[in-house]
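Extended Data, record Transmembrane protein
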Amino acid sequence: MINVLLLSIIYMAYSQREQAICNQEIYLDLDVDEEIVDHAKQNGTDIVLTTSKFFLLDDGLNILNTYTTPNNGTHICNLVSGHPLQSLFLLACQSEGRSPFFVAYKQTSNNSYSVFGEYQGVPTISEVFNKFAIVGNTLIIPQKNKLVFFTTVIQATSWYIRTTAYTLDAQFFNTSSLNITDFSLSSYELDQQTYYRILTLDYENGVFWADAISRSNNLIPFNNGFINVKQSFYIPYSSRFRQVTPVKVSQNITQFIIQTYADSSFQIEYSINNSYLQLLTTLNRYKDWNPFSSIRTNNNIVAVPYQNYQKTVVINLFNIGFRLNDQQTNLKQEPTDLLISASIENLILYFTSETQLVYRSDFDTLTLCTLSNYKVE
């Protein structure tokens, strides 16, 4: 308890010095063996998922409702995502060595949801995954060597998952093999049409990209390429890659943050037309701590979590909009603020607005921070 209090004092004092004010908390009613595992947003409501239930929260950290998840003794519902076209969200329930199933919850009133339709198994998926994405009606599930596209078909009183012909694998990217550690998506507009840039991260080689067009709310991939990030002088050739996070994309430009397992994180801009690669900045690692959880971005704010062997978490907050002048970039960048959490197994970190974020600061605690110095200078 003393350690937790000390950590709280440290992070509050440090953040206030740099104008990240963390002064609002909520304590969740968790069992001793219960873990917070994921977060999603649906219709302005935040969904905080644990290994046995989920909480509905508003932006002020007020609990709107609580529901028990349908864990069946073999599977645990450990991932959640809102559906962009429907007033519902999906839970992914998984078990090592078994195919997953999905559970849909549909909104019945302002702060109430109920199970919608039947549970939907996905027998063609055999590996446990740590994220999934829903774009329009397209459901994307990563496996070790491919991204698999499905279609969610939502009807009046039921729903189901349908297979598609689209898979992003080694053959699609014209490479000998894939060892996928992460993927991400970002949209851009061209000629009044929405396109999506899909970044697929390979453990050893770096970033493969694909473009997809949305037709009848279903993604159709049609173009692809490879970004050889190791051609940058600043990224060691021995680097192994952990995560890729888009910052902004257009038809020709892809700007992203790539994180390695042993080095720093790098903000890179890539031109598709001429394969020009530019390092914009290096987001310095926190001491010798290990990268942890997922990088989060919100306009100019980049939050990069790290964890030590005692499972204490430090979140580096960077302002990537800061430039010494219009022509100059910062080849190395130190964090503007640090947020510190007690020893935890899983980190929850999300933005509620352009200037506010919520993170898990203790086993059963979420903390709200207001940020005031992250505009472009």
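Summary. Residues 136 and 217 are 5 Å apart (CA to CA).
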